[in-house]
Amino acid sequence: MERVFSGIQPTGVLHLGNYLGAVRNWVAIQSDYECIYCVVDLHAVTQSYDVAAMPGRILELATGLLACGLDATQVRLFVQSSLPQHAELAWVFTCVTSMGELGRQTQFKSKSEQQADNINVGLFAYPVLQAADILLYKASRVPVGEDQEQHLELSREIARRFNARFGATFPEPRTLFTSTPRIRGLDGAAKMSKSLGNHIAVDEDEAVLRRKLASAVTDPARQKRADPGHPEICNIYSLHKFFSDSGSCQEIESACRTAAIGCVDCKKRLGDQLLAHFAPIRERWRTLRERPDEVRDVLRQGQRQCQQLADATMAEVRAKMGLNW
Ligand code: TYM
Fold this sequence. Notes:
Elements: E1 3-8, H1 16-28, E2 34-39, H2 41-44, H3 54-67, E3 76-79, H4 85-94, H5 99-103, H6 106-114, H7 121-124, H8 126-135, E4 141-143, H9 149-166, E5 174-176, H10 206-214, H11 235-243, H12 246-257, H13 263-289, H14 292-320
Parallel strand pairs: 1-2, 2-3, 4-5
Helix pairs in contact: 3-13, 3-14, 4-8, 4-14, 8-9, 10-13, 11-13
Bound molecules: ligand 1.
Ligand 1 binds next to β1, α1 and α8.
């Protein structure tokens, strides 16, 4: 079985972008690959954050992932900082990565603009730690959203460079995309993300969900209720395509083009579909929240299982680099 690795940051929200771009794939492939999934808290500390809230966020995200359908008997789920080998391998990789390559990463450039008062070295080296996460387990497939392609390209380059300098050690990991690898935010322009505040959470409260949808951008040509719409450019319609069945989608599409329905009605229907789709996940999430020790046990078990692989890779890396006196 090919090995899969992927990670998600405990930023406090699991949103539709994470879910449609990555997490639903994590669940879909869990019996087809040997899957390792990680709550990447060391990546999250490259942004300013509330220290007191972090333990809760880590646990809440792990709970949400299990609620989305990850099966702890099939996958390994753990917290990045519980295995220091991630940071150790990241250091090794910083020594085969050039400053120029890191400076060209679009995510570094956009995050630097978003957090101009906190452009720390960790933010700069973020993709190196990501490469270490994946290669520590010699994973060959990485289910992520499209925004991670450039980071994965760098992971491949790092693997190649390490192999060329110290001998064949790492595979070149490839992305595994879903059919919706890039979800736009409610502004209809940028990708959906917590830091841009244009997201809908998987466990969004109904009133908040309806309010967020009400102010979401649709087809700019539909100024008035009677204006015919262009569903192909409307972000709300693109979400319908995932959450509504094909019959409803066809009906909405033609009703939008002929102005038979307005955006308010279209958004109401999407809200209904979202609530119905996520109801079982929200229910499982609620139940699991009451049993935090069960979630901690899953994370500890994942840590133990991953530790053996991490130790083996680091022993090999040290030997290949002449650090095994
Ligand atoms: P994070 O937490 O920012 O995102 C988690 C996953 O969600 C996907 N995603 C999206 N997909 C489609 N449309 C969107 N609007 C959207 N927003 C987020 C991301 O592509 C990602 O798959 N750097 C990684 C975390 C990481 C990682 C790793 C991933 C750390 N180490 C090793 C894979 C392998 C990230 O973006 O997390």
